């Protein structure tokens, strides 16, 4: 099939939108934590964009998408993007250049480990962060992405994940839970330190994430056209519905509708609709958005308020729980009427798909959680994970980077 100029243009735009999401994540997180640590998370996300882009260029793409070695990892055919065609396509995306597909997938590989920064915000050394994101990419993300998107063993079993609910949000969400448990709580953990210092900055980050997510999900069609248009609508409705649920729940709980709640609700909806976005109708996305809003909101109450787990920015709930719910939703409401290349779910005559999706979720959760524990334990035993208590008091901006976000 020849290269399609329209499809290529659409994918270049989508790649730019998804790239924007990484610094947007930094703005979102920075606004929601204390001022003395705000630069530290921006530094993590922005430097992570550089580090993980190079890692993908050198070895990541080939390990994920090169011809499979027994269904478990890709070969070394495309190290440094060697032999990836720029004037011809790969069979993963037959109407766009191979380098366009590889560059687009780079953005997914970049943002996934960086989601975990929200869990260990305000207490992890940058040097440990540097080692962690490289190790996590190689040991967790690349194998899992190959198993599902690189035509590995989970794909062979029929597991579907349109744009990352299993590969990205389940793995990073459970990795965040593990990171919070291994690192332990911040000093004086409680309401006094969980006060956002700049909500407008967080809203800017959330806005850019919402816009970028259209490239994340609709771009995953890998072509322009009707399916991309439906995917964009499904993404927006799922996010808007989840945001509305959070508005109502925060209003009921505190008597005032919360800005922080609406942006968290929107992100929860975006994360949760991601795996199913290319397989479901907008009507089912509306129902899914309600479920995502409820699940993520009450998961935070359980994990942070009841169990006292210090996942600083609730990544395990906003991404992990929603990624699981959205991935299982494929097994319920996916329809080949929407996407003939996808599955039918339980409500469309295929009850086995729910069990298959549950297997994929379980594998991603185990790898994300277990892999994170092992990586962090090794780092802690060698160079150490957590800043000293006095450094935590001063703030990571000064102690890790010798900079201040705000100078009076």
From TrEMBL:
<feature type="domain" description="Ammonium transporter AmtB-like">
    <location>
        <begin position="10"/>
        <end position="406"/>
    </location>
</feature>
<dbReference type="InterPro" id="IPR001905">
    <property type="entry name" value="Ammonium_transpt"/>
</dbReference>
<dbReference type="InterPro" id="IPR018047">
    <property type="entry name" value="Ammonium_transpt_CS"/>
</dbReference>
<comment type="similarity">
    <text>Belongs to the ammonia transporter channel (TC 1.A.11.2) family.</text>
</comment>
<feature type="transmembrane region" description="Helical">
    <location>
        <begin position="101"/>
        <end position="121"/>
    </location>
</feature>
<protein>
    <recommendedName>
        <fullName>Ammonium transporter</fullName>
    </recommendedName>
</protein>
<feature type="transmembrane region" description="Helical">
    <location>
        <begin position="12"/>
        <end position="33"/>
    </location>
</feature>
<keyword id="KW-0813">Transport</keyword>
<keyword id="KW-0472">Membrane</keyword>
<dbReference type="Pfam" id="PF00909">
    <property type="entry name" value="Ammonium_transp"/>
</dbReference>
<feature type="transmembrane region" description="Helical">
    <location>
        <begin position="222"/>
        <end position="249"/>
    </location>
</feature>
<feature type="transmembrane region" description="Helical">
    <location>
        <begin position="315"/>
        <end position="338"/>
    </location>
</feature>
<feature type="transmembrane region" description="Helical">
    <location>
        <begin position="261"/>
        <end position="280"/>
    </location>
</feature>
<dbReference type="GO" id="GO:0005886">
    <property type="term" value="C:plasma membrane"/>
</dbReference>
<dbReference type="GO" id="GO:0008519">
    <property type="term" value="F:ammonium channel activity"/>
</dbReference>
<dbReference type="InterPro" id="IPR024041">
    <property type="entry name" value="NH4_transpt_AmtB-like_dom"/>
</dbReference>
<keyword id="KW-1133">Transmembrane helix</keyword>
<feature type="transmembrane region" description="Helical">
    <location>
        <begin position="45"/>
        <end position="66"/>
    </location>
</feature>
<feature type="transmembrane region" description="Helical">
    <location>
        <begin position="358"/>
        <end position="379"/>
    </location>
</feature>
<keyword id="KW-0812">Transmembrane</keyword>
<feature type="transmembrane region" description="Helical">
    <location>
        <begin position="286"/>
        <end position="303"/>
    </location>
</feature>
<keyword id="KW-0924">Ammonia transport</keyword>
<dbReference type="InterPro" id="IPR029020">
    <property type="entry name" value="Ammonium/urea_transptr"/>
</dbReference>
<feature type="transmembrane region" description="Helical">
    <location>
        <begin position="128"/>
        <end position="150"/>
    </location>
</feature>
<feature type="transmembrane region" description="Helical">
    <location>
        <begin position="162"/>
        <end position="183"/>
    </location>
</feature>
<feature type="transmembrane region" description="Helical">
    <location>
        <begin position="195"/>
        <end position="216"/>
    </location>
</feature>
